[in-house]
Structures are given as C-alpha cells and as structure tokens.
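Working notes for the structural subgroup meeting. M.R. asked for a predicted model of this chain before we commit to crystallization trials. I am recording the input and output together here so anyone reviewing the notebook later can reproduce the run.

Input as submitted:
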Amino acid sequence: MSIPNEQITDEVGVLPDVTRLSVKNLLLLEASVVKELRRRELVRTNNKPLGDIAEYIVWMARGGVLEPNSTKSHDITTASGQRIQVKAMANRAAGAGAKFSPFRSAGYHTAVFLVFDLAFEIAEAYEVGAEQIEEHVRFVPHVAGRQPTLTQVRALGGDITAEMRAAYAGIDGFLSS
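Returned structure, recorded in token form:
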C-alpha cells in the first residue's frame, strides 16, 4: 500500500521535536507509544530502553568504563576494578513480587538495582553483593539463572537511592555538554 507524500508530511508534522526533550520525557513518550502499540496488539512485551539508561546512570554515579553490550556478566568496571551488573525495572503494577532479569553468570562483584516509578523517577535503588545473590537467590532452571524479586533486593541490598537520584538529576546536562 502506498501512502501519498502529503499524508506522510502531515503525520510527521504532528510529531514532537524529541531533540529538545529531557531523558525523563523521552521515557514517558516511549512508554505511551509502547502502550498504544500493545493496545493495538502489535507488540506483546514492554521492552524498554530503561536498562541502557539505568547503566548510564550508574556509570555517571560510579565512573569507570561503561562496557560494550556484548560484555558478559557486568556492565561497568570502576577505576578500582569493581565489576558492576545493573538491573532496572519500571514499577508498574507488579509490586514487591516483581522480578528483575536473571543473573546468568557470576563474573561481577556487585549489582545495582534501579526501580523507576510511573513518571520515570528513581523510586528505589539498592546495591547487593554478588555473594549475597549467589547465596540467597535460587537458581531458576527455565530462565537459566538467578532471578531476584524486588522483595529480595530490598532485604539484601544497601539503599543507594540518594546517590542514584543525584546522578540521574544531572543526566540531561551531562548529555548536552
């Protein structure tokens, strides 16, 4: 099916100039687009860019090297050599039983978990040592890894919400410099 050029121009004319949106507003826009695509039954999941943004926030807070996506078992290596795995979730209606994506290898020292609220603010952030995850989070065969719940992360982790919020607060200024 061919769409006349004037219809494409009209459609494009109503789109926002995303280059001027903050990171939070980009996430809100993306969430509304995915919601509409789900309503239309065109997509079946809520996969989001949130994980990549969470990694960037932790990197801003901790420094070091943001590893390439293909790096197994960790996302950031700090200047002191600490390997950090980052996990994120949008706290939709899942509640405390919500599960983070699984850990499939143990080549990290610590994990940082970020929980975003519906407005894409950081609601909670925790840091948990790899040994705690290995000891207290059971291996789930069908996901081939250890998949902690938000309840487990809250119990095992140290609260680093203020640190991560501070890093997130500077993300737009950092990206535009």
